[in-house]
Design goal:
Blueprint: H1 2-21, H2 34-40, E1 44-48, H3 53-56, H4 77-87, E2 91-97, H5 126-136, E3 140-145, H6 159-174, E4 180-183, H7 200-210, E5 215-218, E6 224-226, E7 241-242, H8 256-261, E8 268-269, E9 272-277, H9 295-304, E10 310-315, H10 326-342, E11 352-355, E12 379-380, E13 389-407, E14 415-424, E15 429-436, E16 443-461, E17 466-473, E18 498-501, H11 507-510, E19 518-521, E20 526-536, E21 538-542, E22 552-560, E23 566-574, E24 585-588, E25 595-607, E26 613-616, E27 618-621
Parallel strand pairs: 1-2, 1-10, 2-3, 3-4, 4-5, 5-6, 6-9, 9-10
Antiparallel strand pairs: 7-8, 11-13, 12-17, 13-16, 13-17, 14-15, 14-16, 18-20, 19-26, 20-25, 21-24, 21-27, 22-23, 22-25
Helix pairs in contact: 4-5, 4-10, 6-7, 9-10
The structure holds beta-L-fucopyranose.
């Protein structure tokens, strides 16, 4: 009896001592701050674009709008918060001030605010109502503030930086905790064409002085980064690290391809955030009521954002009442249901996992940690084992089509690639299933449904992999999701069209294929002859679907009945936000009284990438 007891004691001591002796791996490269880890775990939150543009059908107001255009009839920020909560989101970021300079709170540093509007007789404050609603619903509150301000009289002078810093100070001290400060890098002209050199150090200091835990978003962080497009597609390879020295937001940002993929071994931890709108534009317009993204499209975005090591900031713009439109809220609930159903049942529960190596053979780092729901426990290996693998035995044949992996990012992003094989009964051997590059905080792979009992995941790390979670799901099959075309517009048949200028193949812009396009010299206008006179309301310009490429930014439009006498109907007009969001631009020329038109001339003035050529992937006339 006595001997047994001592033996047990010795055994427990050795076991404990043995475990305690094995140290965790050292962090690899740069690592996230605790605030960045907490932020990454939010995964999904709402963007709200609201302001004068909600009422004027434009994406970028020019700051000359009468503040009285902002006149929502029934603002209900609690409805926004309730919707976000029910959608499974963790917070809301609001456009407190967009490029038109209009402040959604009664700022003492501006005369272009809700105070000057008719809403609540000028006594309202959207930031107050929304921050309170977020607290009530247990959501985090964040703010978007555009340094570019086309209204402020001091924009373009050295004094403006202090004005903007005061404005920030006001917002960040007046409404409780702010989890994210969203800085739009856009830096256009202000009144009288004045340009501004932003004082980012001043702005950042103001944020951290007021909100030490806030994550600062910009093209280059420092808290998190823009991932390079507004389509919702983060890089298949997506490092949370980036080289930032010598770069800045806006004009000074690294190329979009770099933002999309991050930089392996980059000098700072600046994880990706995917900002994308549930509608084609960022602001509400009745014209997009029938263009709310489908559940399939949203699911696709889920996989290309959250499933690719990025947070998802989904924009849901309130309508002219100041409420989330029923179509959008219904879609959000359907989307949540689709996500919940896809990830309801983790088939790995109860599986046997055998690792090729366990660090110090310690239970502290064993495969069992992959199965629990504690992010802070993980499986890892000896330092020198950069290519370990996991064999997963599901104990019986299962059907599945998704694999989810999570690295424990407090020790850095370490996995550079991984391969997945399945056990093929018919061949009695392992067969290739899929492979990918980075994992990061979360990676979800989709593949056609497979039926097998065993799976093998082989990693290649820059340092020994540190994996917190592996999950396997059989999600209902998804479509890739294509946005529906605008069915409202009646387009003129192009079979009799001729291209007057340039001399080129017309079919490239009439074939409804957005991947075929013309590349035209900037000084040559696009002139189309429709073959006969039609009553015309407007036209659609289909840009090439590639961010910051040679799409037309500013343009003139002329129309003619005979090809000799031209009438200018647009002068120095702008395809708003086309650099970052190159979606089809439907432009109304004659809203109420369609005019007789046979010839259309599109004359580019400025190209989105400032180049000398421009792209046209399609032209339609309605
Ligand atoms: C861009 C802006 O120009 C758009 O209007 C929108 O606010 C988007 C989120 O950021 O840079």
């Amino acid at each position: 009896m006595k001997t047994n007891f001592s033996f047990l004691f010795l055994f427990s001591f050795l076991l404990f001592y043995g475990c305690a002796q094995v140290d965790a791996p050292k962090p690899y490269g740069v690592i996230p701050s605790t605030d960045q880890v907490n932020w990454q775990q939010m995964e999904y939150y709402m963007f709200v674009h609201f302001g004068p543009n909600t009422f004027t059908n434009v994406e970028w107001g020019d700051g000359k709008e009468d503040p009285k255009v902002f006149n929502p009839t029934d603002v209900d920020c609690r409805q926004w918060a309730a919707t976000a909560k029910a959608a499974g989101m963790k917070g809301i970021i609001i456009t407190a001030k967009h490029h038109d300079g209009f402040c959604l709170w009664p700022s003492k540093y501006s005369t272009h605010t809700v105070r000057e509007s008719l809403w609540k007789d000028g006594k309202g404050d959207i930031l107050k109502e929304l921050s309170e609603a977020c607290r009530e619903y247990g959501l985090k509150f964040g703010v978007y503030l555009s340094p570019w301000d086309q209204n402020h009289p001091q924009y373009g002078t050295p004094e403006y930086n202090q004005v903007f810093s005061n404005t920030l100070d006001e917002v960040l001290s007046g409404y409780g905790e702010v989890f994210e400060q969203w800085f739009d890098g856009a830096n256009g002209e202000g009144k009288d064409g004045k340009k501004q050199v932003y004082d980012w150090d001043l702005f950042h200091n103001t944020v951290y002085r007021n909100q030490p835990h806030a994550i600062i978003f910009s093209d280059v962080g420092p808290g998190c980064r823009w991932m390079g497009n507004e389509r919702g597609v983060a890089g298949e390879t997506n490092w949370s690290t980036l080289n930032i020295k010598g770069f800045g937001p806006g004009h000074d940002a690294p190329p979009v391809e770099v933002l999309n993929a991050g930089v392996q071994g980059g000098e700072a931890w600046v994880p990706a955030e995917t900002d994308v709108s549930i509608r084609p534009g960022w602001f509400y317009s009745p014209a997009t009521d029938d263009k709310v993204k489908s559940v399939d499209k949203l699911m696709d975005i889920y996989y290309t954002s959250i499933g690719r090591n990025s947070n998802l900031l989904l924009n849901v713009p309130p309508d002219r009442r100041g409420r989330i439109h029923p179509t959008d809220s219904t879609r959000l609930m359907e989307f949540r249901k689709a996500v919940d159903e896809s990830f309801a049942n983790d088939l790995i529960d109860g599986a046997n996992i055998t690792a090729s190596n366990i660090r110090g053979n310690s239970t502290k780092f064993s495969e069992a940690n992959l199965l629990d729901d504690n992010y802070d426990t993980y499986w890892t290996t000896e330092d020198n084992d950069l290519t370990p693998s996991l064999e997963i035995d599901l104990k019986q044949k299962q059907n599945f089509n998704r694999l989810l992996l999570q690295e424990y990012i407090p020790l850095g992003q370490r996995v550079s690639s991984f391969e997945v094989k399945y056990w093929d009964d018919t061949k009695n051997d392992w067969a290739d299933l899929t492979k990918a590059t980075t994992i990061g905080y979360k990676r979800i792979l989709r593949f056609p449904t497979i039926s097998t009992q065993k799976l093998k995941v082989s990693f290649t790390g820059l340092a020994c992999p540190v994996i917190s979670k592996v999950s396997i799901y059989n999600a209902p099959e998804q479509f890739s999701g294509v946005e529906s075309a605008n069915t409202d517009l009646k387009f003129i048949n192009s079979s009799k069209w001729k291209l007057i200028s340039p001399t080129a193949d017309l079919s490239k812009i009439t074939d409804n294929d957005n991947t075929t396009y013309l590349e035209i010299d900037k000084n040559i206008p696009l002139v189309v002859d429709m073959g006969e006179v039609f009553k015309v309301k407007g036209f659609s310009y289909v840009p090439l679907n590639k961010v910051q490429s040679s799409n037309i930014l500013r343009y003139n439009i002329y129309v003619s009945e005979n090809g000799k006498d031209w009438k200018q109907v647009k002068n120095n007009a702008i395809f708003n936000n086309i650099a970052n969001n190159p979606v089809v631009q439907d432009i109304t020329l004659f809203a109420d009284n369609p005019e007789s038109v046979r010839y259309l001339k599109l004359e580019p003035i400025e190209i989105a990438d400032s180049g000398n050529k421009y792209f046209v992937a399609g032209i339609k006339v309605f």
